[in-house]
């Protein structure tokens, strides 16, 4: 903590507020609940504010980035350093942020700018602009309403802080990125659990936003001065001098961003905790103790295609008539999409394609039916009469998945299953339901935040649900 200026007074004022270091004041009751790395995070944000700089908090998921931000904002509001804060996040996180504010800083006025009612949204915005507080909104709202969020009574309105949760969403030039750039804010902060150090272009995009374009120059100059020489040094045919230059420039870049980038991994936090607590009873009494962190293991399983998948895949690559059948337009992107569908499950292809490829259950369609508009829909919508064992044997992924889910259930585990495709979830849902699993599902068809939260709460509180099926975009 010394790095960020801890060493304040333990004496409370009449309101129970203490100086926790470097002139930052916070309720003692709140401060005492924070783990050591969270206290460091709060003081780090305070150090950025004093320098009038933005930053990126890139802690691993589970280390409490939300709590650190709320604690920091609590102190800032109490010290009257800020009055208006805008936090932008994926829609699935809105309820969580509201709950965390209620738990950690119930005195802060928190209002959501979200939902279908334009009048309600305007009322929420006006309330925060007049009384002060925190306005929570989503990336989707920013795309459509950035002008309103930067306006008050026809004049430009500037937020004291603009904070982006899951801020890596602005790594590419999109409407979302344009929207957040166009909302005036004196201070900017990004939260992301996704490591950004390894992709230089993404790194530039995030720091360009956080620092109002003042840290790393324009995209063009950054590419010339940093990205090109560093990238070149990593290539196999790079010369000794190119490797040396790339290393030097990489080190220089790390030094530039270091004060404005705070990332702690679970392993690092756990190791430091063990180091400090060895025989140090005073330390144990002084801070809230971080529980032992469970390790997240990522296992990538390489699977074989089934004979059906392999034949369709090879025919698509080699035979023009199969290409013509499976592709609506000649495009490399469309071709990759088709190949991906084949690898997931052939029935993600159109009904017409499945029929002409001879897949069971679609081989009896007559020519008139094949010319109908419905024939261009995914065959996954017409699987009711296809036997489960056939659906499983047509996909290498399903052969493994259904057995894995059965085994995990028998051992008392509950599982989240993600897919990029709703149609793939339809197939999985049919199979696992018929195998005795009770499932909950959440995809893009559930648009209301309250409905999403209800399903999440139901799965979390009812052990009878063994599987939660979700699309990967459900948290956006």
UniProtKB/TrEMBL annotation:
One of its GO terms (cellular component) is kinetochore. It comes from Lottia gigantea (Giant owl limpet). SUPFAM superfamilies: P-loop containing nucleoside triphosphate hydrolases. This is DNA excision repair protein ERCC-6-like. It catalyses: ATP + H2O = ADP + phosphate + H(+). One of its GO terms (molecular function) is ATP binding. Residues 46-213 form the Helicase ATP-binding domain. SMART domains: DEXDc. GO terms for biological process: cell division. DNA helicase that acts as a tension sensor that associates with catenated DNA which is stretched under tension until it is resolved during anaphase. Functions as ATP-dependent DNA translocase. Can promote Holliday junction branch migration (in vitro). Its EC number is 3.6.4.12. It is an enzyme of class 3 (hydrolase). Its main location: nucleus. It is found in: Chromosome, Centromere, Kinetochore.
């Amino acid at each position: 903590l010394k790095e960020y200026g801890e060493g304040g007074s333990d004496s409370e004022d009449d309101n129970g507020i203490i100086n926790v270091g470097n002139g930052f004041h916070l309720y003692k009751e709140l401060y005492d609940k924070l783990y050591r790395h969270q206290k460091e995070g709060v003081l780090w944000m305070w150090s950025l504010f004093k320098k009038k700089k933005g930053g990126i908090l890139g802690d691993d998921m589970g280390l409490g980035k939300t709590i650190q931000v709320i604690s920091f904002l609590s102190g800032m509001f109490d010290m009257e350093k800020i009055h208006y804060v805008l936090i932008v996040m994926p829609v699935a996180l809105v309820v969580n942020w509201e709950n965390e504010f209620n738990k950690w800083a119930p005195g802060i006025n928190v209002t959501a700018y979200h939902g279908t009612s334009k009048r309600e949204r305007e009322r929420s915005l006006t309330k925060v602009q007049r009384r002060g507080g925190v306005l929570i909104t989503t990336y989707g709202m920013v795309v459509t309403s950035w002008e309103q969020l930067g306006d008050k009574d026809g004049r430009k309105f500037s937020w004291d802080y603009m904070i982006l949760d899951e801020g890596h969403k602005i790594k590419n030039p999109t409407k979302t990125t344009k929207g957040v750039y166009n909302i005036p804010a004196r201070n900017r902060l990004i939260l992301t659990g996704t490591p950004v150090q390894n992709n230089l272009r993404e790194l530039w995009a995030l720091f360009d936003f956080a620092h109002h374009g003042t840290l790393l120059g324009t995209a063009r100059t950054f590419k010339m001065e940093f990205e090109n020489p560093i990238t070149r040094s990593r290539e196999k045919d790079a010369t000794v001098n190119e490797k040396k230059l790339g290393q030097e420039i990489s080190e220089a870049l790390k030094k530039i961003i270091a004060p404005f980038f705070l990332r702690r991994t679970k392993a690092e936090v756990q190791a430091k905790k063990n180091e400090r607590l060895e025989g140090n009873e005073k330390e144990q009494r002084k801070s809230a103790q971080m529980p032992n962190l469970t390790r997240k293991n990522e296992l990538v399983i390489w699977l074989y295609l089934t004979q059906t998948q392999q034949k369709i895949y090879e025919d698509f690559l080699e035979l023009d008539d199969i290409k013509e059948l499976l592709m609506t337009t000649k495009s490399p992107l469309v071709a990759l999409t088709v190949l991906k569908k084949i690898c997931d499950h052939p029935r993600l292809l159109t009904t017409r394609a499945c029929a002409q490829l001879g897949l069971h259950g679609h081989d009896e369609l007559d020519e008139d039916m094949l010319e109908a508009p419905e024939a261009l829909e995914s065959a996954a919508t017409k699987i009711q009469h296809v036997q489960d064992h056939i659906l499983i044997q047509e996909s290498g992924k399903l052969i493994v998945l259904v057995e894995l889910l059965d085994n995990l259930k028998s051992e008392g585990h509950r599982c989240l299953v993600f897919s990029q495709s709703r149609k793939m979830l339809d197939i999985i849902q049919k199979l696992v339901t018929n195998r005795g699993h009770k499932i909950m599902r959440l995809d893009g068809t559930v648009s209301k935040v309250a409905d999403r939260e209800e399903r999440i709460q139901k799965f979390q509180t009812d052990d009878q649900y063994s599987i939660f099926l979700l699309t990967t975009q459900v948290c956006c």
